[in-house]
Design goal:
- The chain is of the alpha/beta class.
- Helices cover 52% and strands 14% of the residues.
- The chain has helices at 4-7, 15-27, 44-64, 83-99, 114-127, 143-153, 165-178, 192-200, 216-225, 227-238, and strands at 31-36, 68-72, 104-106, 132-134, 158-161, 182-187, 205-211.
- It has one domain (4-238): Alpha-Beta Barrel (TIM Barrel), CATH 3.20.20.220.
- It contains 10 helices and 7 strands.
Length: 240
C-alpha cells in the first residue's frame, strides 16, 4: 500500500487505481499520461511483462473512454537488453495503440540511449505517425538538433513539459504567433491547482501520472528535486 505521503505523486499500485485517478483528473479538464513504474531491466522476462501490462492498459483505457494515454521508458521495455528487443516491444505497443485509436509517448532517458531511442521512434512513427510521440530532454546539448530532426519529419503540434509559469507563458505566446497546437504537461503532485486553472482557461493540459508497485524510488526522486516537495513530505510525517 502506498502511504499518504507518497500518494500525492503516485496514482496507485494497480491499473484500476490509475484509471480512477485519470477519471478524477478528467473531471477537472486535465488529460492524463499513465506510466507504469519500472526501468533498467536486464532480464527479457521483466521487459516482456511490462510490455504486456501496457498492452492491457491500452485496452482498459479504450474501454473506459477516458482522456488518457500511456508513456513508456525505453529501458523498461527492453533497451537494457538489446536495441532489437526494445524496438520490437515498442512497435508492438504502438501498433496496439493504433488499433485502439490511442496514443503512446516514449520517454527519453540518459544521453547514452538517445540515438537508439530516436532511431526506434523514427522507424515506428513512419508506420504509425498519429499514434506515437517522442520526448526529448531540454538539458542535453544535442536537443536543439534533435528537435530540428523531429520537426523535419513530424508536422504536428508539440507538448511542453514544464511547471515554470514563465516557460508556460512563453509557450503560449509562441504557439499563438506560429499557429501551432500545443499542450502543457506537468507531473502529478506538482502545481496541481495550476493544472486545473490552465485547463479552465482553455489550455490543453496533461498530467504525467505514474503508478505501480515500484513507487518508492520515483517518490524519493520527486522529494529530492524540489524543496517544496520535501517540506510537504515532512509536514505529512508530522501530521500537519
Amino acid at each position: 500500500m502506498i502511504p499518504p505521503i507518497a500518494r500525492r505523486f503516485v496514482a496507485g499500485e494497480s491499473i484500476p487505481e490509475a484509471l480512477e485517478h485519470a477519471r478524477a483528473r478528467n473531471e477537472d479538464g486535465v488529460a492524463v499520461i499513465l506510466n507504469l513504474l519500472g526501468e533498467h531491466y536486464d532480464d527479457p522476462a521483466d521487459a516482456r511483462a511490462d510490455t504486456d501490462a501496457y498492452l492491457a492498459l491500452l485496452e482498459d483505457i479504450a474501454d473506459s473512454g477516458l482522456d488518457a494515454c500511456v508513456s513508456v521508458k525505453p529501458s523498461q521495455i527492453g533497451l537494457s537488453v538489446s536495441e532489437e528487443l526494445f524496438e520490437e516491444h515498442y512497435r508492438e505497443i504502438v501498433s496496439r495503440a493504433h488499433d485502439l485509436d490511442a496514443f503512446v509517448w516514449c520517454d527519453m532517458e540518459d544521453a547514452d540511449t538517445t540515438d537508439a531511442t530516436l532511431d526506434a521512434f523514427e522507424s515506428i512513427a513512419a508506420e504509425y505517425p498519429w499514434s506515437v510521440g517522442q520526448c526529448v530532454q531540454s538539458n542535453l546539448k544535442r536537443t536543439r538538433e534533435d528537435l530540428r530532426f523531429l520537426f523535419e519529419r513530424r508536422d504536428r503540434g508539440i507538448a511542453v513539459g514544464s511547471h515554470d509559469p514563465a516557460m508556460i507563458a512563453l509557450a503560449d505566446r509562441l504557439a499563438r504567433e506560429h499557429g501551432t497546437e500545443y499542450e502543457i504537461q506537468m507531473l502529478m503532485g506538482v502545481r496541481d491547482e495550476a493544472q486545473r486553472d490552465l485547463a479552465a482557461q482553455g489550455v490543453d493540459v496533461a498530467q504525467y501520472a505514474p503508478f505501480g508497485t515500484k513507487w518508492f524510488s520515483y517518490f524519493y526522486r520527486r522529494v529530492r528535486e524540489r524543496r517544496q516537495n520535501l517540506t510537504f513530505a515532512l509536514r505529512a510525517v508530522a501530521g500537519r
